[in-house]
Amino acid sequence: MSSIAGILRRDGREVPENWVNYLERILMRDGVIPHRFEDSIAVESGHLHVILLGSDSGSGRGSDPGSGRGSDPMHCVLDGCFGESCAYAIWKPETLELELGRRGTGQKPLYWLDLADAGDGFVFCSNPLPLLRIARELELPNDFLSEGVQEYLHHGYVPEGGALLLPACSLPIHISENQLLQTVSSIPRASSTTTAKDVFTLVQIMGMPFADSSLLSTLWQYRESNRLGKPVVDGVGESNKKSDTDDRAASRRIALNAIATHVGVELTITTKGTQMKPVTFPLATWFRSPQSNLGQLLGDTLHAHDAFSGLPVEQKDVAQLHDAHMQGEDHTEQLFSLLTLALWRRQVLAE
Predict the structure, then answer these.
(1) 48 CB neighbour count, 10 Å cutoff
(2) All structural domains of the chain with their residue ranges
(3) Element holding 220 (H helix, E strand)
(4) What does pLDDT average to over the chain?
(5) CA torsion, ordered 341, 342, 347, 351, to nearest 10 deg
(6) Do 111 and 148 contact (CB within 8 A), yes or no?
(7) Which among 53, 82, 85, 198 is most buried, taking Cβ atoms within 10 Å?
């Protein structure tokens, strides 16, 4: 199943087509041409507009799986499978309600943006990037951006509901743990000649920065599994910090799901601590080499004059950190975190 997205607007104004384009482009990154459902109903304010986007296999008429009212004329878009991990949106024209929901282990994310005075409604998507672009267009501020950046740099990931993604919010879920203890997959041979492009791809499909460079290995291993026609069993791993175990696990579930969806491989996530052994690669050396595509990306990105414009990051300090690494000190983890943060900022500003 692919990502889902949609818009509900109650103020009588038309939905801007560029908003729909933002959402459609994100869904198409999973290699699926999204199915588009639209409805417009006369209300006191003019017309209520609804647009739902999803894959053909995950969308269609149906009923709320928890309601038992199969005869109601509803329309839903679905990422995943009901009864398993999923995210969904169900439009109920008889009551003029758009229901959003998540179920299962939390690997299927869903984000929403309250339009507030800009449209009396909301926009939702499996990926937060288009919501942040719409928020920027509407001049809806993130009053906690500084806290969000510091939170990300401290933990190395963006927690669900983290301040960095505001005013986009993560739809809450009550996690139902998968109690099946399964052996994770072993894919020792996997590599890529386009590492720089892969970093950029991961930021796009996750919709946020990340500090865990082993996700590059995950991308390569999932690609290899897809090539071999084999499903993947993977886990969230264990954190060195007990205080952030739950947040990190939730973040990793979402990351693994995003990669599997993008690659097109069947994924089962076991929640019993272990994770697939990553392929090792010389990231510190690649960062120092001007001949490597990743070293070129790092230097070009971090030394760009506007790399962190609008973020509470001192460009001078970043440049000094990069220079020190080039001279033999090891700042690989910090530089990787800053690289994906700068690439994420570029994506939020993209038209």
Answers:
(1) 21
(2) 5-170, 195-270, 283-349
(3) helix 214-228
(4) 87
(5) 150
(6) no
(7) 53
Q: How confident is the model at residue 272 (pLDDT cuts 50, 70, 90)?
A: low
Torsion-angle region of residue 332: left (phi > 0), alpha (psi -120 to 50) or beta? Answer: alpha
**CATH class for the domain made up of 5-170:** alpha beta
Can you give the length of the chain in residues?
351
> Which has the closest alpha carbon to 151: 165, 141, 137?
165
User: pLDDT band at 237, cuts 50/70/90?
Assistant: confident
| pLDDT, position 274 | 81
Indicate the Cα dihedral angle 210, 212, 213, 217, nearest 10°: -110
Beta strand residue intervals within the chain, DSSP E = 5-9, 35-43, 46-54, 59-62, 74-80, 86-92, 97-103, 111-114, 121-125, 169-170, 232-235, 267-270
Q: What was the pLDDT predicted at 273?
A: 61
Residue 199 tokens read as: 């970093």
Angle ∠(151,344,113) on CA atoms, nearest 5: 75
Rounded to a whole number of angstroms, the distance between the first and last alpha carbons of the chain is 26
Q: How far apart are CA 19 and CA 213, in angstroms?
A: 32
Task: For residues 150-161, give the mean pLDDT.
Answer: 94
Cα angle 212, 213, 218; round to 5: 95
**65 preceded by a cis bond (ω within 30 of 0):** no
C-alpha 64, offset from chain centre: 25
Mean pLDDT of 219-232: 93
Number of C-beta neighbours around residue 240 at 10 A: 7
Phi first, then psi, for residue 87 (nearest 5°) are -130, 145
Q: Among 114-118, 195-199, 269-273, which stretch is predicted with the lowest mean pLDDT?
A: 269-273
